[in-house]
Write a structure and sequence with these properties.
single chain; alpha/beta; Rossmann fold; two-stranded antiparallel sheet; 6 helices; 25% helix; globular
Length: 209
């Protein structure tokens, strides 16, 4: 009997196939982009874990990528932005549907302070989402952030340079972001389940964040 025949004879569900997604632990938050949801385990962002967004050019559409999540119905919990490279333009965010009353912007002059603020925001369990721009963070810092996201049951989106892709990370999801014409190119560098063989292209419109 061939190996393929032997495997086919086993009970359904006993054999895991590499082309299927692994189970996404914890809650999942839809991205609001159907093409991307189709490529993510569970069909969305990890709701209690760290997602790394890697890119070298701020302003390619990374905020448009997160906009459906940021525009979810307002609650008593904060949306925390830590050390963004540019001051967010409040009128554009308001027009896009972001509840500015729930947005908390934290500036940090040093990398260590930004890392500390990110961990505190996650540990507070008072945030609906945390966005942090941390160009420099070591492996130990990444592990602490992932643990804090899990313990605080809060999604963390960590913006880092593309070169950080060479550094191991405990994040269950890592995406590389770049501009491709009038679209945001999303390369899935790491996800639970099989490797992705093609990028996702997210069309951007005039005035996209």
């Amino acid at each position: 009997m061939s190996t393929a025949s032997a495997l086919a004879a086993l009970p359904a569900g006993l054999v895991w196939q590499g082309r299927t997604f692994a189970h996404q632990a914890g809650p999942v938050l839809p991205t609001g982009h159907a093409a991307l949801d189709a490529e993510l385990p569970g069909g969305g962002w990890p709701g209690t874990a760290m997602t790394e967004l890697l890119g070298d050019q701020p302003g390619v559409g990374e905020l448009s990528l997160l906009l459906p999540l940021l525009c979810r119905p307002a609650s008593s919990r904060w949306q925390v932005w830590i050390a963004p490279p540019r001051i967010p333009y409040a009128p554009a965010l308001r027009m896009a549907g972001v509840d500015l009353a729930s947005l908390l912007l934290i500036t940090a002059p040093a990398a260590a302070e930004a890392l500390w603020a990110t961990r505190q925001a996650l540990a507070s369990a008072s945030c609906s989402v945390v966005l942090a721009w941390l160009p420099q963070v070591d492996s130990a810092g990444l592990r602490r952030l992932q643990l804090a996201a899990e313990e605080g049951a809060t999604p963390l989106f960590l913006f880092r340079p593309l070169a950080a892709a060479r550094q191991p990370s405990p994040a269950p999801l890592r995406l590389a972001l770049s501009a491709q014409g009038r679209a945001l190119r999303i390369d899935l560098l790491k996800r639970r389940g099989p490797l992705a063989h093609a990028p996702v292209l997210l069309p951007l419109h005039a005035g996209s964040l």
